[in-house]
C-alpha cells in the first residue's frame, strides 16, 4: 500500500480559508492569520504577507474583507467589499 500526501502551500491554505468563509458577512484577516498559523505552525510568512494572500483570495472569490489584524503603525481596522 502506498500513501500519498499533498503539499499544502500557504497560498492554498489562504484560499481554502476564504472559501470556508464565503457565506460570512465579511472575512477577518486577524482570524484568517490565526487559522493559517494554527494549520501551518512552521510558516515563515509575515502577518502582512498572509494578510495580502488572504485579501487577494477574497477579491477573487468576492468575499468582503475586514483588515483587522494589528498593525505596527496602529492604523484603524478597515472594511473593504
Summarize the structure.
The chain has 81 residues and is mostly helical. It has helices at 10-20, 29-39, 47-61; strands at residues 27-28, 65-67, 78-80.
Descriptive report:
By secondary structure, the chain is mainly α. The N and C termini lie far apart (48 Å). It is globular. It has a 3-stranded mixed sheet with strand order 1-2-3. It has 3 helices and 3 strands. 46% of the residues lie in helices and 10% in strands.
Q: CA-to-CA gap between the ends?
A: 48 Å
Number of strands: 3
- Percentage of residues assigned to helices: 40-55%
Shape: globular
Q: Helix/strand/pairing class, anyone?
A: mainly alpha
Instruction: Tally the helices.
Output: 3
Radius of gyration equals: 14 Å
Question: What is the fold's blueprint, element by element?
Answer:
Blueprint: H1 10-20, E1 27-28, H2 29-39, H3 47-61, E2 65-67, E3 78-80
Parallel strand pairs: 1-2
Antiparallel strand pairs: 2-3
